[in-house]
Amino acid sequence: MQSALLLIIFIFLYIGLLYPTLAIVGYDIYSKPNKTLSTIIRWRKREHDIWQTTTLYNILQIVAPLIPLSESAEKRMNEDLARADIPFNAKEYYAKAILSSISGILVALIGSSMNSTLIVVGGILLCIYLFFKNYDQLGDTLKNKYAIIEDEIPQFIRSIESGLHTDRDIIRVLERYNRIASPAMRSELEVLLADMQTSNVQRALMRFDNRMNSAEISRLVAALIEIDRGTDATMTLQYLAQDMTTLHRSLIQKELDKRPGQMRRAILPSGVILVVMMFYIMIMAVVTSASSLF
User: Fold this and answer.
1) pLDDT per residue over 235-254, tens digit each?
2) Which of 160, 165, 138 minimizes the C-alpha distance to 208?
3) 144-158: per-residue pLDDT in tens?
4) One-character DSSP codes across 80-139
5) Could you tell me the CA-to-CA distances from 53 to 41, 47, 56, 57 in Å, in that order?
C-alpha cells in the first residue's frame, strides 16, 4: 500500500511540476500550436498523403467515378479543396474516406472469423474513426485556416490602409503585404493577386470578399473598389483602420481573459498533490499506531 501511495504522489508531483517547469524554460504554456496552420496542414511542406502513392491513387481513380455527386456540389467541393491545399478532387476525397474505413471492416471480419466480439467491436469503431477522420479533414483544415486569417485581419487592413497613403496602386500594396503575410492569408492573397492581374480588379476583389465572408473584409473591399474607380476613400479607410485597432485590442483582451482558467488548470495538480500527501501522512500514522498496538 505504501508503494502504491508513493506512486500516486510521484504521478501527481510530475503533473504538478510540468507546467511550472515548462514556463521556467521559456515554453509558452498558453499557446495552442495545434491551432496554427503550419502544424495542422504543413502548407506545401507537409508529407505526402499515403493515398498519393501510385498504387493507392490508382485505386482511388477506380472508385472515385462511382461516388454520386451533383455538378454544383462537386464544383463547390473542388473549390474548398483547392483553398485547403488538399491534392484531391471532390470524388477522390470522398472515395479516400470510404476506402480508408475498409481496414476497420477487415479487422471486424477477422474478429468474426475468430469468434472474438472484442475485435469485431474494435474493427467497427476503427472503421467509423477512419471514415470521419478523413471526411472531416477538409472542414477542420478550413476552420483552422480562417480562424488564423480572422486574427490577422486587423493587421492586414491597417497595413493596406497605411500602404495606400504613399502608393495608390492596389496591386503593389497587396503584393508588399503578401511578403509578410501568414501562410493562411498568403494563400488567399496569391489567389486574389493572380485574379486581379488576369481579370477585372473590381470583380477579383468581390470574389475575394465572397471567399473571406468577413464583415471587415467587405468594408475594405468596398473602399478598394472606390479607389479603383478613382474616388477618394481616405476617410473611409481611416475609420476602418481605427475600428481595426479597437478590434485588435478586443482580441488581445479576449485571449487574456482565457488565462485565469488556464492557470487554474495548471495549479490544480499541485493542490491534488497536497491533499494526497496529507492523506498519506494520516494513513501512515494510523498504520504505525495500529502496528504498535499489536
Assistant:
1) 888 888 888 888 777 777 77
2) 160
3) 888 888 888 888 888
4) HHHHTT-SS-HHHHHHHHHHHHHHHHHHHHHHHHTT-HHHHHHHHHHHHHHHHHHHTHHH
5) 18, 12, 6, 6
